[in-house]
Automatic annotation (TrEMBL):
It comes from the Eukaryota. Signal peptide: none annotated. The lineage of its organism: Eukaryota, Viridiplantae, Streptophyta, Embryophyta, Tracheophyta. This is Autophagy-related protein 101 isoform X2. GO terms for biological process: autophagy.
Amino acid sequence: MNCEIFQLKELDVDQFEIREVLRCIFHTIVFHRALGLVQPKEIDLELFDITYVQCGDVEVERKIDEKITQFIDRVEKHPNRKHQICLSFYEVRNKQATWFTNKVERHYWEHWYVNLSVAHHPKADSGKSHHPKVVNAGESASEERDAQRSGLESSLREVLFQIIKFGNEKKDHIPSVPNIEGASFPFEITISSSSDSAFGMEMLKRMLQTGHPNMLS
C-alpha cells in the first residue's frame, strides 16, 4: 500500500492565531477523510472571514484540541522559530503472534505536514502618548498587523484549497473502511520543530517503513 505525503504551504502566524489556524486545517483534513455518515458542523473563525466544517464527532474534537494545546506549549518554549506538526492516518494490523504476545502495528497510509513560522508580537501599550512619533509608530504597527492578518487569511484559504485538491485527487491508497465506531479513520498528530533533526529522522523512518511514498507540495 502506498503512503501519500502532503506538504502544505507554510503559514506565517502570531502565537495567538495558532489555535484557530490548526483547528481549521486539521478538521478540514479529517472531514475530507471522514467515514460514512457524519453530522457536519459549520464553524466560523473569529479571527478570519473563513468558515470550515467539522465532522461533529466529540472524540475527534477532543483529540485535535489536546494536541494543539501541546503544540502551543512547545511554541511558547521555542518562540520565533519554524515549527511543523503532522496529522497521519493509519490502519492497525496484527503481526504474526509469538509465544508470549500478539503484536499490533500501525501501517501509515497518509501524512499531512503543516508548516508554521511563528512570531510573537508583544501587546501594544494601551497608554496614550501625545508625542507624534509614538503615535505614528503605533499606527504603523497596527497597519502592519492588519496587513499580516490579511495575508494569513489569504494563505490559509490556499491551504484549505490544497487539502480539498489533494483529498479529491489522491484516493487509491485509502484502505477499506475499518470496522470501528466514530467519524474518522484512526489518526495521530505528531509535534516537532522543523529544525529538529530527530523529527527529520522520524519522517525518514516512516518513509522507509511505508515503502517509497509519493510526496506532494
